[in-house]
Amino acid sequence: MSAGFPDGPLWLIGCGNMGGAMLRRWIAAGLDPATVTVITRSGKGAPDGVRLLTALPDEAAPATLMLALKPQQIDAAQALLAPLRGAPTLLLSILAGVDHAALSARFSAECIVRAMPNLPVAIGKGVTSLYTVGGPMTAAEAFAAPLGHYEWIADEAHFDAVTALAGCGPGFVFRFADALAKAGAALGLPADQAARLAIATLEGSAIMAADADVSPAVLADRVASPGGSTREGLNILDRDDALVRLLTETLAASERRNGEMAAAAR
What we know:
eight-stranded mixed beta sheet
């Protein structure tokens, strides 16, 4: 495929927000769009140069097949792929909550890999969690690497928690950014200025945390002088572990929903 991607064609079943973001990032990283086929019911959503179909072509299975649908569409994907001749080397699934056993029961491939990316993959700064039976697979890593940080999850039982943390996490960070901006506006700042300051503060802090050799907890204490204004604010967030408890409840809710989707797909 070029640029370090596995050889052979890539087919995407579905190309929604996440699948489309991944594909556009791969193309930006050197993937030849001429080697890609997108199959969608609408016949829309594929980047320029990609073959776009509304039905399965009468061709042998591609080297890599990616399921980029909503989890509730798994049975429709199974029906669509039933006539496929042969099996792909790699089946890559981003169906949230759909476990390896459910995928293996419906689809044939030499290797099936669950992947949970988050939205910043669109700019190569995402997090992609990977799981397969038997351990890491080089071809899956080749697709994950251009998207940003990736990690293999050793125990699939942890996948719902990882999805809640990293997969859903950008939504929670965006909400925090919005809340920080609204809090600034509540103190009298113009709303647009407060929003710019909040986003720039988050960006710089995240980069600093990523490059630091200490934990974010240590960094927070370093910027909070005893008796200073930062410490006074942290005292509110730290009181009775309020922020930790809130985020624990938030992730637990997302984890439960992932489990419900997995149960529905079995």
